[in-house]
Amino acid sequence: MTISETQRQTLLNMVEDIAGPEVKKVAIVLLDSEEETTDEIIAEELDIKLNNVRKALYRLYDIQLASFRRIRDKNSGWFLYLWKIHPERIDDIISTRRKEVLNKIKMRLEFEESQMFFQSNCEHYTRISFQDAMVFEFVCPECGEKFEPFENEVIINALKLRKDELVNLIKAKNGA
Ligand SMILES: [Zn+2]
Predict the structure, then answer these.
(1) Residue 146 and residue 138: Cα distance in Å, rounded?
(2) 3-state secondary structure string, the chain?
């Protein structure tokens, strides 16, 4: 299937985001192939180790962006794996991914809001839990610097903002 340049960019950005630059390279080869492709052809084209290509392919399979078909090579009798990318699944994958990220943000937010943190003015403890700070009697065990409350309001606000953004994106998608 053909996809627009924007869709292609969205897809590749997401792949890089989730799985890294090497998997992205493999995804590009798959997108540019007219037909199904084998791991060997991809390895040759990219000059990447076959093993790494396989790992990348399974990563794409794992996020449901690629599928494979196994056939027996008539000459060698060995199995060949023919890989194919499914750009049409991108919307579903993105919305699943957004929900996962939203859950992580919610958990992190709960963590940030339910705890008190401390920090020392020295470089030894940039952030420490209330319980740990208490164990050290609120002074740095390395240099004796006092611990002070660590304000995590900025973090909390940033998380809330991201949470709202995601909630709106998910709502918009469901409404469409
Ligand atoms: Zn210190």
Answers:
(1) 6
(2) CCCCHHHHHHHHHHHHHHHCHHHHHHHHHHHHCCCCEEHHHHHHHHCCCHHHHHHHHHHHHHCCCEEEEEEECCCCCCEEEEEEECHHHHHHHHHHHHHHHHHHHHHHHHHHHHCCEEEECCCCCCCEEHHHHHHCCCECCCCCCEEEEECCHHHHHHHHHHHHHHHHHHHHHHHC
In the predicted model, what is the mean pLDDT of residues 73-99? 91
Amino acid identity at 121: N
Q: What backbone torsions phi and psi does residue 85 show, to the nearest 5 degrees?
A: -100, 150
Per-residue model confidence (pLDDT) at position 24: 97
Q: What separation in Å is there between the alpha carbon of 132 and the centre of ligand 1?
A: 14
Q: Which domains does the chain have, with CATH numbers?
A: 5-85 (1.10.10.10), 94-175 (no CATH)
Cα of 155 vs centre of ligand 1, distance in Å, is: 23
CA angle 143/144/147 to nearest 5° reads 115
Is the pLDDT assigned to residue 176 strictly greater than 60? Answer: no
Residue 84: φ, ψ to 5°: -145, 140
What is the reported pTM? 0.69
CA 154 to ligand 1 centroid distance, Å: 24
